[in-house]
Amino acid sequence: MSFILITGLLLGGTYALIAMGLNLQYGVARIMNLANGEMLVAGGFAAFWVYTAGQVSPIAALLVVAPLAFAVNWLIYRLMLRPLVKRAKSRGALEVNSILATFGLSFVLVGIMTWMFGGGYFNYSYLAQRVDIFGASYGQNRVVAFSIASLIALALWLWLSYTRAGLRMRAVSVSPESARLVGIDVPAVSGLAFGLGGAVTASGGALISMFFTLDASVGVMFTMKALIIVIMGGVGDIRGTIVAALILGIAETFVARVIDPGLTLAAAYVLFLGVLLFRPQGLFGSKPT
Amino acid sequence: MITLRDIRNLLLAAAALGLAALLPFYDSGYILSIATTMAMFTVLATSWALFSGPTHYISLSTAAFFGLGTFVTGLGFQTLPRGRLPLIAAGIGAVLAAVVGLVTLRLSGVYFVIFTLGLAELVRQLVTWVQNRTGQRGMYVLTSITERDIYWQLIGLAALVFLLGWLIGRSRLGFALRIIGNDETVAKHSGIDTAMAKIVLFMNSGAVAAVVGALLAPRYIYIEPSTAFAPILSFQVVIMALLGGTGRLWGPLAGVIPFTILWEFISRHAPNQTLLLLGVAFLLIVYVLPGGFVGLYDRLRRRFGAWGQ
């Protein structure tokens, strides 16, 4: 039982990082980014590539992956999504358009990645030794990935809570209209949040590639899980996202171990159903008045 | 009120469908095969657009309903009367759609999109799990049904769906849906049961997709979860409907014909690039052709004056 709990927590920590990336993009920039999972896979590909080609550790690769992903996502926001925000007449219209646009982007990315890397699975062996926690052994790579994910999440949380730039971001997340009135450059902050979200997700991808076998088309699965986590934790709520991610990690591990490894998505859906039926505003959200 | 224009349109539609039904006498090989695919997507995209067009709720779950339909035929074609299978499929599709609708359609559209995005994969996992438990594998659907029969059944179904769409468009329900699509708050305040209206329409498109699956099962011969619930079908349907445009009943059809031909061409000559094509088509719709061909047609008509009225 404690084995399931710890394995679940280790998995959930990485999920938390991925979902935090999506939450920045959806909560602040108001873009429901369905290409989020492809950014994750791209980050994983990058880590795989530098490790197999140059024996560079995936952790060092983060130093390249994160800035690169930031730049790419910032550009995507400026070139593709900003025009949609400008022309949208309502939040609903923006939602439909951004869903279609990012969905298209996700297919284009899958197409490009299949073309570059082929359709097969890829993984590599890094830190594959065992490490003992409470009498059971776990993959060292999982523990390391979890620790780094926690560090990044902590840094992000501190930055959002205690810096002026973080405050601006939270202000836009609460209300873009009012943020504009107090002199915040909403488009600039949104672009920053979108880029940052992409960087966080891609870093999560690089970390997850250390212990998870990826392929070019697996991204949508992660998008789905990240979306469920964000909805469950509450849009724009970092604490909720972390808790929801850990719950999902544990639930998935439990289902995979006890019932059937082929039912992991079903586990996510059960949680999603519960949230939709009882707490659509998120775990810690208050009911809208 | 049925006006002269309505009668003209009905007659034109009947003539077009009648003409389409003659196709198997002309060719029973490659062209019929493409035409069957087109008929399938016409039914799927038109019934998708009946719900998603006016409400702007993007459903990404056609494959889930379609796959269930193929399984109904796969499991029951030896024991049950053949005419009853599509009805059972329709029932199951409607029930699944009602469940999804009850859970998500009371809330905002985002929840609906997310829920439908993974639905096909969820159902596939569950069906695979049940199969593993009962020790079953994929199944063969060997029947005497030919492609020609399937084609005719699909044309009949298309006629039914078009008629239904036409009736809904003239009914209170259709009016309610258009108001919901324009402004859901206004709709609520004018006393429309918005959740109910959406659920009923979504059940309709779920049932139709399941029937299409049930009708097409003999075409695939061998049925297993990973092919029956292939999620790409959902996205093809969305693309075709939006490319054609959902503003008119014939809109999806205008998207189905060119896209099926293009898809056929790409998957023959560059099978690895079909996803790229799908992605580019999505982007094209958002940035170049909002409203699809129907939107383009309306814009052109506005610019060059109304002809043919």
Describe this protein's structure.
The complex is a heterodimer of chains A (289) and B (309). Chain A contains 11 helices and 2 strands; from the N terminus they run ααααββααααααα. In chain A, helix 1 (2-28) runs antiparallel to helix 8, helix 2 runs parallel beside helix 4 and helix 10 crosses helix 11 (264-278). Chain A has helices at 2-28, 36-54, 58-87, 91-117, 140-162, 164-174, 176-181, 186-208, 219-233, 238-259, 264-278; strands at residues 130-133, 136-139. Chain A is globular, with a radius of gyration of 18 Å. Chain B has a two-stranded antiparallel ribbon with strand order 1-2. In chain B, helix 1 packs antiparallel against helix 7 (147-170), helix 3 (30-55) packs antiparallel against helix 10 and helix 12 packs across helix 13. The two termini of chain B are 19 Å apart. Chain B has 309 residues and is mostly helical. Chain B has one domain (4-230). At the A-B interface, helix 4, helix 9 and helix 11 of A face helix 6 and helix 14 of B.
State the end-to-end distance of chain A.
41 Å
Poorly predicted runs of chain B are: none
Under CATH, the topology of chain A is which?
Answer: ABC transporter involved in vitamin B12 uptake, BtuC
Total helical segments of chain A: 11
Mean pLDDT of chain B: 86
Strand order within the widest sheet of chain B? Answer: 1-2
**Whole-number radius of gyration of chain A?**
18 Å
Q: Which structural class is indicated by helix and strand composition of chain B?
A: mainly alpha
Q: Mean pLDDT of chain A, nearest integer?
A: 86
Structural class determined from secondary elements of chain A: mainly alpha
Count of individual domains of chain A: 1
The coarse overall form of chain A would be globular
Q: Please give the share of residues in helix of chain A.
A: over 70%
The radius of gyration computed from the alpha-carbon positions of chain B, rounded to a whole number of angstroms, is 19 Å
Question: What's the number of domains of chain B?
Answer: 1
- CATH uppermost class of chain A: Mainly Alpha
Q: What sequence of helices (H) and strands (E) makes up the elements of chain B?
A: HHHHHHEHHHHEHHHHH
Q: Oligomeric state of the chains?
A: heterodimer
Q: Per DSSP, what share of the residues of chain B sits in E-state strands of 2 or more residues? A: under 5%
SSE string of chain A, helices as H and strands as E: HHHHEEHHHHHHH
The general outline of chain B is: globular
